[in-house]
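discrete fold record:
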Amino acid sequence: MQKHLVVLIWAPLALAACSESPSPAPAPDIEPFTSGTYAVASTNLEVDEPYTGVGDEVMHRILLGDSNPEGGPASLLDILAHPEAAWVTEIDVPSQPALYGPFTGKPIAVVSYVMYPSGHQGPKTTYAFPYHDSAFGTFDHMLGPTESPVFAEPNTRYPLVVLSHGSMAHGIYDVAHAQDLASHGYIVAVITYGEERFNEPASDNAHIGFLRPLITREVIDDLLTSETFGRHIDAENIGVSGFSFGGFTALAVTGGPFLGQDVTAHDPRITASVAVAPWVGNRNTFREFFAFGEDNRGLSKVTAPTLVFYGTEDRNTTGKTILPAVEQLGGPRYVVEFVDQTHD
């Protein structure tokens, strides 16, 4: 049995338009999608006891990968109770200084969590990640250190959806989103890039724009080749969805050459992408900057179907910037406008 990839977005806002054209026609309001029929389980992301009470400010810094000058934990991996049971992707950054700057040729470890349709039998268990009182959702049926996933339909290959968060953010914001998607029959991988580890104050940090799609591609490869999830993933149905800088990441890994560089880590296995308020550069009175080459024309290399969302009151990634970029996409594209929606 195979399932087809349909990326679901929870959106409790007024849907103004949905069209293949960046000049969309009006459409009626819609109701948000509800949870699906599958129970959902996840890989391990339990925090070690000494760090469960550090508070939101410290936890936020750790999740961002903000190095602690006093020698404390510098990333999510450093505070996990069972790092051997977490989904950790070890990445050897290629030796390409022009792309990866100070991190060229170096190894980096990236933590993700994976949610999937579960065949778990027994009482429901939940785990609340110690951040903002778990306002962003709890983990159900989190696997213990010696447990292996039990899928709802063991002989089914499920579509894979990768969620890519925005700048100065992390994967904990996407817990409920990932759980909703998994409940509809998807395997969902949520990456926490911890990219403050890569921030170089004295540089323009362009290397982060190259590291993002590289990391995303490596996480996909890690999942597909793993004994744990590989045989349960439909490799012909892989989608990437991202918000803001995560939307940029989705476009880049789907084929958009960052700064016009064709060596950007394109993953041709991706069959669809969703870019929510994607950063594609800046256009204002004083300066124009395009993420994907002049006028973002490099987006013509993105041939997979792409769904783009933007808000009419977004002052960070504006329709004025996004819509001309959408025009450059080389494959089917769809645009959804949210009336009165800001970037938050």
Q: What stands out?
A: The chain has a mean pLDDT of 89.
